[in-house]
Amino acid sequence: FTSGTATASGLLVTPAGSGPFPAVVVVHEWWGLDGWVKDQARALAKEGYLALAVDLYDGQVATDKDSAHQYMMNLSQDKAVRDLKAAYSFLAGHKDIEQVDYLGLPSHPLHALASKYLLLVDAEHDEQYGKPINRYGHLMSFRVKGGAGPTRTMFSALQRIWRATDLGRIK
After folding, report:
1. How many angstroms separate the CA atoms of 38 and 54, rounded?
2. Residue 53 and residue 11: Cα distance in Å, rounded?
3. Does residue 122 surpass a pLDDT of 50?
4. How far apart are the C-alpha atoms of 165 and 21, rounded to whole Å?
5. Which DSSP category does 15 fall into?
6. Which ranges in the chain belong to alpha helices (H)?
7. Is the peptide bond before 20 cis (omega within 30 degrees of 0)?
8. What is the pLDDT confidence band of residue 171, given thresholds at 50, 70 and 90?
9. Sheet bearing 23-27, strands edge to edge
């Protein structure tokens, strides 16, 4: 899928049957898009979810803690955010997805408001940027078709949920 002027990659696993399906963006740990992460995406597809595991390291997979640390430290936050926003856009245009809710998508009803207020703290004073930068936050939601029952099933299938204590320098 396209990410800015580059191409981002990942693993897209579609469940059996016909959509629309609920979707999940799978973000790998510091090891990269390894076999374990791919297995998690496949497991989610078996549960009925279209899973897109985004490769933020462009094909690099760590084999030890030192290389994992190096890959993570070398990952540009701007590239990671751009690639994840591209993943959301890709899913929003996918024929089997009912709806993606992410403030960074122009189709979101609150996009204009988010563009005005969800700015990276002090980016205009940072020599890397020199102007206000909008990352729209790091939160996204999906509307699961079918109401409360399928939604509960989806959340029950998730292995990890973290409470957001830091939204990445968003004002």
Report:
1. 10
2. 5
3. yes
4. 30
5. P
6. 35-46, 65-74, 77-92, 111-117, 148-157
7. yes
8. very low
9. 9-13, 50-55, 23-27
Residue 55 has pLDDT above 90, yes or no: yes
pLDDT band at 11 (very low <50, low <70, confident <90, very high): very high
Q: What is the mean pLDDT of the chain?
A: 77
Instruction: Report the alpha-carbon distance of residue 161 to residue 143 in Å, rounded.
Output: 17
Q: Is 26 left (phi over 0), alpha (psi -120 to 50) or beta?
A: beta
Higher-scoring residue by pLDDT: 166, 88: 88
Q: Rounded to whole angstroms, how far apart are CA atoms 120 and 125?
A: 11
CA angle (82, 85, 91) in 5-degree steps: 140
Task: Tell me the two tokens of residue 110.
Answer: 């609150």
Q: Which residue has the tokens 């998730």?
A: 158
Contacts of 28 (CB under 8 A, 6+ apart): 34, 37, 53, 54, 55, 56, 57
pLDDT of 163 above 60: no
